[in-house]
Structure formats: C-alpha cells, structure tokens
Amino acid sequence: MTMSFSELSEFSKEFKRFLKKYGSLVDGLKEFKRIISVAPLGNSKHFNVITENEQCVIVKARLFCRYLRGSSLRIIYAFHCQGCKVEFIEIY
C-alpha cells in the first residue's frame, strides 16, 4: 500500500519561503514523509491529533530540520484514511 502526498497552495508558498532560510528543509520533509508513510498518525510525542472524523484525521506535528539546530517547525496535515492520502495544509 503506497501513500500519496499532496499539498495546498498555502503550504507550497510557506514552504518556499522557509526553504530560502533553511536549505535542508527538503531533506527534512523527505524524512517526514518516510515516517508518516509507516505511521500516518505519528510515532512519538511530537505528533498531536487535532480533530478526526470518518473521512480524515487532522494532525499537527514537529518537522525537524538540520539548519534549525535542535528547534523545529510545525506542520499540519490531513490523513485521509480510505484513500491512503496525506495532504499538507500548513507549515509554520
């Protein structure tokens, strides 16, 4: 079963803005995608379910980036249970 990823236009805009500051953000997002492919609702205290219904679960998580040196960005995404799909909503 493969996980598909998409992102809202607001997420894309914010991601590009953060990418200018933090060059390793692309690698951080790749690693994050690998983690949620295995455990869509998270695997540690860094994941928090905001809301859930039959169709999807909204999760807020920490996105670690090498350039931030111990700090992290927050990422909000929707996991659609039926379609095995993750949609990135916001990064801050």
Describe this structure in words.
- With 92 residues, this protein is of the alpha+beta class.
- 29% of the residues lie in helices and 38% in strands.
- It is built from 2 helices and 5 strands.
- It has helices at residues 9-21, 25-38, and strands at residues 4-7, 47-52, 56-64, 72-80, 85-91.
- Strands 1-5-4-3-2 form a 5-stranded mixed sheet.
- A hairpin with a 4-residue loop joins β4 (72-80) and β5 (85-91).
- The protein is globular and about 40 Å long.
- The mean pLDDT is 92.
Q: Count the E strands.
A: 5
- The proportion of residues in beta strands is 35-45%
Tally of helical segments: 2
Strand order in the sheet with the most strands: 1-5-4-3-2
The helicity comes to: 25-40%
Biggest sheet layout: 5 strands, mixed
Structural classification: alpha+beta
